[in-house]
Structure formats: structure tokens, C-alpha cells
């Protein structure tokens, strides 16, 4: 395997878009290519994460359509379907196709447009991310799954639910604090107080509105290339030093959803490839589709002991300036969650953090960053580890 | 890149299944693993092509669900969405992940279950394979697209339509002749005469029922590994010597649909990687979703000059025993077309042909075989070149 780098990233603002998924991807991709000091004609292949374009817009074969819209018709163009992890799958596959020596410069990312759909249709579509034979018939939706996770977490570690809810509210508050000043975030410019969070409507007890990520439109992209080419293009290359992937058959196959073995296995693979451990990670964008999900993920990645993640939030360890800054972009909670794009947007944030270009949201001195996405009911989990320079 | 081989293949019978897509894949995969003299626990990652499981069964994240059903929960499991080319994308990605050195033994294939759907719903779902912004609003469906292809082919090369139709009927007759004796084929045991073909109902002029492939359920899989491991497992390894991929933005972006640049570029990439040309291919499974598609593909792959493919059919060149045997399995036309599985089923046939295990359908002495799949309205095209031994 050759060494592989990201040389440029781009993303649309997340939120409500009048553009199609193809057009949003073209916007993000063009920004990524320009930021890489390349031209579109330099791209040799296209990898696009997209979960449900066939349902949302009657558009399958997303990657070929994106290639054509960019004037790159003819190029190899592959679409990855891994629910909320789709964008990460596109990027880790770009990593291996470049690393293998087959391609030198690949455009990878993701796109999704979900706000075109009514809530019942969106709920049904999201529901295809669970086990269709054993979970769908129960009527369990994602808020229900993560509500169970919160109850089980509180019970397992003997935490009064009111205390856990306060920690979850702080996850939300942190997300909105940084999302509010991230111009790409769905909730950019929207200040949210602890009182608003505490008083928001109940969705699935104990999850309230501010414990849940929004439905979003958006796209993000990255240019992936070799070390040699990266050196010629930029003095701020970001190396991909490890990737990992794990799977499960959904909630119905889990013994204890306060731990997710697929995540732990995937993270272990990524750390092993990179030759590092959790302590080496300076900044992480992880899958906070619900506030409790951030707490559980922060433990699954090895940042905190099982049962300690909620305390770390309360201590401020996961805030910018803390010991282990998590989701300085505002995360899925405040940045938004166009599912196929989410993994690529995490890479967008980490690359900018490692380059020191995040302004008031900057994690000072960050050298190693991590992304974590989880698709479906814990079905598809993927990780990328990135490092500043060489 | 390390050298890569297929050591075992498996497939369900194509047709109507009571099993889910996950269960069909598990059947094909188990057969492939057993045929490889391996155990399921030897598999390190899973790559599954699936076009529309989220619509067909409310099941997205297909690969993780397949992994769990096989008792392989936890493994990296990636789903590829390339419409009818999905299964080929899974296999060529297995090729690169093994070639790169990251994994040693990967299970790759595809699955699709489409006969659960009513015709209007199936038509709508299939329609997501075209360009949703420019083609869908025209009402153009796949039979319409390939009917246009037949008319344009006849016009371009000055062929009386009745003569072209006779050549197309012979494509169908050949497909059913071999599908009739292929136990895995949807139309196994069904003899079809030229008279039946000529007298079948009109679908989209000039395409009649016997010019069109059926709607199908099915799955197919292959075990992909390194040369070294293959040598230990089997005395009949089949090497993957080249892969290719190409894309387009659909019919609306094509100047002349009697030639498909995406296919020609993809095939060129595959031939270049393998260091061979069309003349070296002894047997080919190509994308005959409609009879005219077989003729156009046979030219696009370089087997015949543009405008000569229909004559080759009439001469018998594309039959078993002819100069360039095409679709000895019965092809998509008679074997069936569960879209996500089709590319993997082509690899299944080619591997068996190169091993000399096809009985009455055997292409004698075949050393090099090719697969060709086309997804959407020419949006995603992929190729694999396989070679007997080393």
C-alpha cells in the first residue's frame, strides 16, 4: 500500500436545499477540487456515499450521475450504501484504490437530500436501516432505539436518569454552541440555551427534541491522493493513517446496546493500522445522532472507560479546550445529518482542524483526528484516522 | 498489488424465491465458501451488490445484514449500489482490497429480490436507474430505451428492421437453448422455439416479450483471495487478471446509443490491466437485458466491428462452438436478472467455464473469460477478466 493523503475538502451548508443530491455533490466536489489546486480533469475516479437516493428522488446510481454533472462522465464511479456510514465507506474505499496503486487522484464523499420527504415517508425510509425481518415489525424507530440505550445506560451504571439527562443536555448544548458559529451547520446562527434544551418537547422518553439530530440536505467531498502528489499540491497535507470498518445485524442481534462490538472492532482495526491508540487522538468527530449516542461512542472509541463518558461530558473534557474535544463542528446534532454525506463532512471538519483553519472552533495543536460513523441500528460502522503532515 | 484469484463460487437458482435477499445471499455464500474448501470463519470481509433492497423489502445496509445472517457479524461489510452492475462492483472491490494487502480472504457477490413487487412498483423502482431529473419525466422505461436502441441500430447500419429482428430472435433462441439446460436458470427446463419468440406479445416495438429479460429473485457469491492461498485451496484457481469500470449520466447524455462510450472505456481499462485484447477472450457473459443489448455489447467489447454484431449472431459466432461464445449460461435473458446478483452470477458462470465444469454447456478449452454488466440507462458499467490457472 502506498501512503495516502487528503489534499482538499469541500462541503455545502447543511440544512434545506433546493438543489438535487447530484447538484449538491457537484458543489461540494468542485470546492474540494479547487481547494486541492487541481482541476476536475485530474480526477480519475469518483466514490459517493448515498443511502436512499432511489427513495428520496427516484435516483439510484448516484455516483455516475454525480460524475456526469461534474463533466467527468466515463470515469469509474461507485456508490456506497451504508446508511449513515455511506460517506465514510466512500472515503475508505478511495483510500484503498489509491493506496493499491490503481488510481492516483480520487474524489470521494457523500450526498443526501431528505427534507424533500414528508415525515411519515422519511420515517419509513430511515426504517430501512434496521433489520427488516426482526426489527421493522416491532415498530421500533431510531428515537426509540436510542431512548432504550439511554435507559439501559442509566440502569447499568446506576446513574439517576435525571443526572444522565443533564449530561445529555450538555452534549446538546456543546453541539449547538459550536454549530452556532459554524457557517456550514444547519443551526448556524441559532443560539440554544440549557433552558431551551431542558424544556423542549419529549420525543421518545427520555429523549427530547434537543437530544435528536435533525433531518437534513447536504453534501461533502474530499480529494484523496498519494503522498508524492500531495506534497506537490499543498504544504498542508493530511495523511490517512488508518481505516476501520465493522458490522452487525442490528439491535436485535445485540446483547447490550450500551456497548457496540462493531464499533469497538472497527476502531481497533483503525488504531492497529495507524499504530496508535485512543490517547493519541487530539480531536474526534463522532456519531452523535442522539446525545446518548455521543456518550456511548466516546467510550466505544476508548476515550473513556465504559460508564465514564457521561461524567467526561459534565467535566467538560469533550469540549474544545478539554482533554478530548469531540464534535467541534457542532456534530450531527447541530451541523445536521444528510446521512450519506455525514462521514465526508466529518472528514471535512477533521482536515480543517488538523490544518488549524477552524478559527473560533479550533482545537489548538491538533495533530491526529478521528472520524466515527454508525449506519442503521448499529449495522455499519466505519472509522478513519487522519494525521497532519507526514 | 498482489495477484488475486477466485477459489470458489455459489449461486441460488434464479427465479421466484420465498427467501429474503439476506437469506438468498447466505445460501449462495455458503455454497461459495464450501466450494473453496474454507470455513465461514476464514472470511475477513464481505462485499455485497444490491440495487434496491430498501424499496423491495425495506432493507438497506444489506451487506451487514448478510454478514450477521452468516454468523459473521462484526466483519467489515460494504454494500455497493450500481443498479444492474452492483454485483460486479462488489467483486472488483474485493479484488482491490485483497490485492492491496489489507485482506486475504473476502466474500463478494450480490443479491436482489424483485418479484415481491407489483409490476407498477417494480417499474417505478427500476426507473430510479435512469437520470431522475431529465429522463424520468419523459416516462421512458428500460424497454423503451432499448427499443430506441434497436431502431437506431437498424437505421445507422441500413439494416431492414425485419432482418435485425430475426437476429434478435436468434439471440433469444440461443439464450433459452442454454438456459433450458442450466439448472440455476429461471427458465431451466423451458424449451423455447423460434416460432414462440417470433409470435410473442409486443412490449415496446420492436421488442417482443422474448426480447426482454424477466424480473427475478436470486443471489450469487465468490470467494476472492491471494494467489498463495488459492494454490493451497484448489488445483483449479481462476485468476482475476483485469477489472474496469465506466460511467455515464444516462441516455440523455449520449450522442449515439448504438455505441456506449462508458463500456468501451471500461473494457479498455480492463484489457490494459490484463495486458490482453478482445481476441484473447474465449468466453463472455455480457449484459443481455434485451436482445439488442447483447448485439451492441458484443461490438462495444471489441469482439466484432460496429454494425457487425448482428451478423455474428446469424452466423452462429456467438453460440457455444462458435468463434466467440457469449452467454453460455443462458444470459440475463434466460438465466434471469436479480439485478444486484447479476454480475456475481456472471463470475459464477465464467469460473465454472474456465474450470471446464459446465457439462453440455461447456465452451471447450476456455482459458480466458470476461464479464460485462451495465447498470441503469448506461450509467454504471463494469468488467472483470478472469484466467484459468496462473
Can you walk me through this structure?
2 copies of one chain form a homodimer. The first copy, chain A, has 390 residues and is an alpha/beta fold. The first copy, chain A, contains 14 helices and 11 strands. In chain A, the strands form 2 sheets. A 9-stranded mixed beta sheet of chain A has the order 3-2-4-7-1-8-11-10-9, with helices on both faces. In chain A, helix 4 (86-99) crosses helix 14, helix 7 crosses helix 11 and helix 7 crosses helix 12 (309-315). Chain A starts with a strand and ends with a strand. Chains A and B meet through helix 2, helix 3, strand 3, helix 4 and strand 8 of A and helix 2, helix 3, strand 3, helix 4 and strand 8 of B.
Which descriptors apply to this entry?
alpha/beta, homodimer, nine-stranded mixed β-sheet, two-stranded antiparallel ribbon, globular, 390 residues, 18% strand
Low-confidence stretches of chain A: none
Coarse morphology of chain A:
globular
Q: SSE order of chain A, as H and E?
A: EHEHHEHEHHHHEEEHEHEHHHHEE
What's the N-to-C terminus distance of chain A? 16 Å
Estimate the strand proportion of chain A: 15-25%
Q: Percent range for helical residues of chain A?
A: 25-40%
Largest sheet of chain A: 9 strands, mixed
In terms of quaternary structure, the protein is: homodimer
- Cα-atom Rg of chain A, whole angstroms? 19 Å
How many E strands of chain A?
11
Strand numbers in spatial order across the main sheet of chain A: 3-2-4-7-1-8-11-10-9
Give the overall pLDDT of chain A as a whole number.
Answer: 97
Amino acid at each position: 500500500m502506498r501512503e495516502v493523503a487528503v489534499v482538499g475538502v469541500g462541503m455545502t451548508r447543511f440544512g434545506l436545499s433546493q438543489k438535487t443530491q447530484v447538484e449538491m455533490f457537484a458543489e461540494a466536489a468542485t470546492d474540494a477540487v479547487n481547494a486541492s489546486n487541481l482541476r476536475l480533469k485530474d480526477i480519475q475516479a469518483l466514490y459517493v456515499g448515498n443511502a436512499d437516493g432511489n427513495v428520496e428522488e427516484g435516483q439510484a446510481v448516484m455516483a455516475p450521475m454525480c460524475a456526469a454533472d461534474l463533466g467527468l462522465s466515463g470515469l469509474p464511479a461507485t456508490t456506497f450504501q451504508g446508511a449513515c456510514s455511506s460517506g465514510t465507506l466512500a472515503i475508505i474505499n478511495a483510500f484503498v484504490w489509491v493506496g493499491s496503486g490503481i488510481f492516483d487522484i480520487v474524489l470521494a464523499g457523500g450526498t443526501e437530500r431528505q427534507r424533500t420527504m414528508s415525515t411519515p415517508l422519511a420515517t419509513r425510509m430511515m426504517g430501512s436501516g434496521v433489520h427488516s425481518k426482526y426489527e421493522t415489525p416491532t415498530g421500533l424507530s431510531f428515537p426509540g432505539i436510542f431512548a432504550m440505550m439511554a435507559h439501559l445506560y442509566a440502569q447499568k451504571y446506576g446513574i439517576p436518569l435525571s443526572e444522565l439527562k443533564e449530561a445529555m443536555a450538555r452534549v446538546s448544548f456543546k453541539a449547538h454552541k459550536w454549530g452556532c458559529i459554524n457557517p456550514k451547520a444547519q443551526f448556524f446562527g441559532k443560539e440554544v440555551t440549557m433552558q431551551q434544551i431542558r424544556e423542549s418537547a419529549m420525543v421518545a422518553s427520555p429523549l427530547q427534541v434537543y437530544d435528536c439530530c435533525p433531518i437534513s440536505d447536504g453534501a461533502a467531498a474530499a480529494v484523496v491522493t498519494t503522498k508524492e502528489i500531495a506534497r506537490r499540491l499543498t504544504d498542508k497535507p493530511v495523511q490517512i493513517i488508518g481505516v476501520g470498518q465493522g458490522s452487525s445485524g442490528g439491535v436485535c442481534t445485540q446483547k447490550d446496546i450500551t456497548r457496540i462490538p462493531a464499533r469497538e472492532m472497527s476502531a481497533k482495526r483503525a488504531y492497529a493500522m495507524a499504530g496508535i491508540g485512543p490517547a493519541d487522538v487530539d480531536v474526534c468527530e463522532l456519531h452523535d445522532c442522539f446525545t446518548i449516542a455521543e456518550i456511548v461512542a466516546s467510550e466505544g472509541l476508548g476515550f473513556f472507560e465504559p460508564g465514564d463518558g457521561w461524567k467526561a461530558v459534565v467535566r467538560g473534557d469533550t469540549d474544545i479546550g478539554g482533554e478530548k474535544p469531540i464534535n467541534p463542528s457542532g456534530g450531527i446534532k447541530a451541523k445536521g445529518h444528510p446521512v450519506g454525506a455525514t462521514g465526508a463532512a466529518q472528514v471535512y471538519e477533521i482536515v480543517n482542524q488538523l490544518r488549524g483553519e477552524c478559527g473560533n472552533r479550533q482545537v489548538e495543536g491538533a495533530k491526529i483526528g478521528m472520524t466515527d460513523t454508525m449506519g442503521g441500528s448499529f449495522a455499519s460502522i466505519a472509522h478513519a484516522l487522519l494525521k497532519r503532515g507526514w
